[in-house]
Amino acid sequence: MNDFKICMRILQTAIFFSIFLVIVGQKTSGKTIKPPSSAIHDVTDQLSILSRLVNGIAIQNGFDSNSITPDALLSELLHVGPGNVTLSEIQNLKTEGMAKDYEEIVKSASTMTKGSFGMEEVGSGFEILGKMAENLDMLKEAEALNLTDILEKATSAHKVNKRVFSSSIHEFAENIDKIFDDKTLIASATTPMIEMFKKMVKKFDDFENKCEDLASYKSYLKELWPMIGLTEELNKLEAVASTAKTFNESFILISSSIKKMDELNKELASIDLVVGNLPKMKLVAKNLKSMKLFFESVLSAKLQKRLLTVGFPNGVPDALQLFNDLKSEWVLEKVASKNGKELENMKTDLNGLKKFNKFASLSDSFWKILKTSNVRETLKKSEAIWSTIELTNLSSHIAKNLRTSSSDLSKCFKELNVSSVTLDFHIFEKRIEKLRELDRVAVEAGRLLSPLDKFPVLSNKAVILSLKTELQKIDENSTVIDLEKSMKNIRLNPDLKNLRDAISNASSIITEVENAEIRKPLETLESWDDVSIMQEALENTNLVNNLECLRNHSFNDKGLSQAVNFGSQFVQLDLT
């Protein structure tokens, strides 16, 4: 941390040609020494002064002042490549006003509670409460849910007359299709056709019952239809289950968070004060990042030739020698003989440089310290924290509202109690899935069987019996002519043709029903105990009351999370 403090002190003084300024004043014998400048334009003015002095030296040495520009000589003096004479890397550091901002940050940081009670943990507790509060409406609706009625209907759904799903219709549909098929060769298959007629007569009672089942599917499945839309009701109960599970798993954490409301209020009050300086912190963070990048670029191969030890290869001794040279009468006379105005400028400039040079030695030593690996590593570590502060979207408005709502919460929050109900969430989910299946089955059955409504002939007993009459005319003594006559009578009868179409469609519908596995979920009746008990999962816990308290006071759990993250990062900075 000492290296970091030294690094911070680098910002206390103007580093010659590296443009660093005072952040926190040095204290000597109880007095604060202020730097000569805290703005980048002041330092660039000094660079301009040096340019003119260098130009003056060039004149007294007999150089043609029109052929050598001050910037080029300055570049040569600083050991900077010709393409970098504007010193753009240095000028990119925006340091003006940084000292004052930093001092304000230090002052506000000293007022901030250091999170001794584990604010991150409290923040996590309230984040969990906030997520549970999103289900508050469903939790309250679940309390009013007539679950007994729902489960009784689910039990009744298993008692429906399942004969409507019977596959016996397929064989009869296939046989009647043969009768209506013009391609059926009676002459070459007389005996099989006679056997088919006899078999149809033998099973006709079953066929007649099947027609009645299909025609009456709505009444047969009347206990199934109330299951449609059940999923919407189950969503409310699942919200209870999900909340109860989270509540049980996080009980200690959220209970602890509620018990620490007073401490939280103090913490938020201190954060509220600090957040006022957040815009300035972001600027400081940005500048620190720029400085780190500048240090890295100076140390990289790209800028190897730049020797920024106060602007001279040998550091302070070179600078002092320059001042001594410029003070010599010989130099002044030579310059005066060339250009009297130049002399006056140099005298003025020299006075400015003398003042500036008071800090040259200290700047030189700071620059050497800054190039050490320890300081660079410290800057690297602190950059992550500062970057977090720079990116935070916490605002004074959010912090103030958090402080107000948190204070209000303390008045309506109640102590949480452990749930007294033993819950098996695994079994509950299985039973809920079964109830969802009943919803699906009801919807699918209604969709697939509804086309049967187009065939009222299925309930017309007279038409059905007329088919039986024609079939009974054929026995083992019947001839080909008898078969042809009977089949012709069936084919020409429009009612029987309608019946044939109805049976053919019904067979296709039952095939779809079989593929949709509608019957299977209705076979096994389950116990609903693990479902019914879930409605009581949050009773007497005070959770719903507390979630309502959160909502009524518009508590911003996401804002709290931002504040917690900001606070936890901020207190990690050693700003002294």
From TrEMBL:
Name of the gene this protein is made from: Cnig_chr_V.g20600
PANTHER family membership: ANK_REP_REGION DOMAIN-CONTAINING PROTEIN-RELATED, ANKYRIN REPEAT-CONTAINING PROTEIN F37A4.4-RELATED-RELATED
Domain (Domain of unknown function WSN) ranges: 38-108
Protein name: Domain of unknown function WSN domain-containing protein
A Pfam family recorded for this sequence: WSN
InterPro entries: Ankyrin_repeat-containing (IPR053345), WSN (IPR003125)
Domain of life of the source: Eukaryota
Organism: Caenorhabditis nigoni
